[in-house]
Amino acid sequence: MKDLIVVTGGTGYIGSHTAVELMEAGYEVLIIDNLANSQIEVLGGIEKITGKKPPFEKLDLLDRKGVMDCFDRYPAIKAVIHFAAHKAVNESVEKPLMYYENNLLSLINLLNAMKEHGVRHFVFSSSCTVYGQPDKLPVTEQSPIKKASSPYGNTKQIAEEIIEDSILSGDPFDAISLRYFNPVGAHPSAYIGELPLGVPANLVPFITQTAIGIRAELRVFGDDYNTPDGSAIRDYIDVVDLSRAHVTSIKRLISGKNKNALEVFNLGTGKGLSVLEIINAFVKATGVDIKFRVEDRREGDVEQVYADTTLANRILGWKANTTLEETLRSAWKWEQNLRNG
Ligand code: UD1
Known about the structure:
The protein has helices at 13-24, 42-50, 64-73, 89-94, 96-116, 151-168, 203-212, 239-254, 275-286, 310-316, 324-340; strands spanning 4-8, 28-33, 56-58, 77-82, 121-127, 174-180, 182-184, 218-221, 233-234, 236-238, 262-267, 273-274, 292-295. The protein has 341 residues and is an alpha/beta fold. Helix 6 links the parallel strand 5 (121-127) and strand 6 (174-180). It binds uridine-diphosphate-N-acetylglucosamine.
């Protein structure tokens, strides 16, 4: 029997790409999602790519009994990759309790169900936001965890602590926490991609929506940072590359290479790019012009952050290899498919 991997948040952006990569690597996938921020049609996109529609459970992870029952129904579950969470930084400042409740209780319910059912392998979707503005760049996994600048960021920090404490308890449990930098792009088939609800908060979806004419112009948040062109710097990582790191993480856990530990890996390209560089790269890759205007800095933004990926390269044997041009083209192709069919 093939190993069954649960992907919570599997109809979401990174979850759906990871489901595809897992299936293409030969795993069975069970998607759990409450569809709060994603659409059921994503399963059709996954099927178009892989030739198979994965089993799907519409389930809110806050439903403790529902989670237990779900694990009862699938005794073949071997590991869990946990994406399902709220992720909008600004919203988390306005609704902290909603973020703490959703992101932390769902994690606890999931870990309880795993413990109850003897499922020991766990991959967690974390974020570079745990580093805040690092003192040294590129940022390694050893960099100090700074006080989180938003409740969203704090849920990621606390979640890592909850996972670590679960391991320290001595239960047969091991885990990998993947700290994403800025995931962008879409599957090259354009059958799946990012589906932001309403006005996108993130840069690349805003760029593609401006390019297609949904938004009049892009606002560049700040050109007075201490960076070469004054705009903020991030590490933009292709979503398919990022997804593949989940497959290698699952392989590592199942093969027993990580015994009763929490391992943490940065997932980025190792290269920092400014907002203006991304706009220029998009125009160059697609031939579509982007109207933009510089505005004040966005509250809560850090000046620059990019990853030292040595550890993921060495231990996971993983490396981001999609070029920025390919990534931005995939984002554009996805946006065009979405709007024009
Ligand atoms: C942040 C977090 C990331 C988290 C994500 C969730 C940090 C360093 N990163 O990403 O961990 O998972 O939120 O959403 O804390 N920008 C514009 N105009 C726009 C949109 C964005 O200029 O319309 C700029 C931002 O100011 C920023 C860059 O583009 O400099 C990237 O922004 P965004 O895509 O929102 O991601 P982060 O804020 O870096």
